[in-house]
Amino acid sequence: MLLAATTATLLVAGLTGCSGAGASTADQAAGTSDASGLGAQWGSCMRDAGFEVEDPSDDQVRSGTVLAPQGGDQQAFETAAARCSSDLGIEQIGSAEKDKWTREYARVASCIRDEFPDYPEQEPGGLALGPEEYPRALEDGFQERADECLRKYSPDTQSQTAR
């Protein structure tokens, strides 16, 4: 799992989930998206809205992991992400799922603090991994620690590099 520590923040506030069928096991394992899948459609919609993002996997779209590029208008990104999800028939996730991710991200932040004790407290449901929020994110070892903590405490979270 590669996090773009310099360009991305994971947000739960704009997360969406889908009640449709899940991605194939191979797609889930590879984190892939076929050209006509939900990920490609969602990515195209977001680019049409003015955001330079890679196509997420279909599973990422279904699970609701939204990656917001740093330095941009976060509210505009969340609004566009919600519109694109709605246009694709993806329903907003319930509060129980949001609560689950909020707990998972709190555990991830605590895990990061085990090696980076000055890692700041995070907004509930958010996980800031970029140098804008935490300049030490560029240091050797931070990316690896963040990846390790995400795998351990939030295994369903998948991330992508925002361009």
The poorly predicted ranges are 1-34
> What's the number of extended β-strand segments?
3
Q: Tell me the helix content.
A: 40-55%
Q: Please write the string of helix (H) and strand (E) elements.
A: EHHHEHHEH
Termini Cα gap: 16 Å
Q: Classify the secondary structure makeup into a structural class.
A: mainly alpha
Widest sheet: strand order?
2-1-3
Strand residue content: 5-15%
Question: Could you describe the 3D structure shown?
Answer:
There is one protein chain. The chain has 163 residues and is mainly alpha-helical. It is built from 6 helices and 3 strands, in the order E-H-H-H-E-H-H-E-H. The chain has helices at 25-30, 38-48, 58-63, 74-87, 95-115, 142-153, and strands at residues 8-11, 66-69, 126-128. A 3-stranded antiparallel beta sheet has the order 2-1-3. Helix 5 (95-115) packs antiparallel against helix 6. Residues 54-73, 116-163 are annotated as: Disordered. Residues 1-23 form the signal peptide.
Question: What descriptive keywords fit this protein?
Answer:
three-stranded antiparallel sheet; 6 helices; globular; mainly alpha; 163 residues; single chain; 3 strands
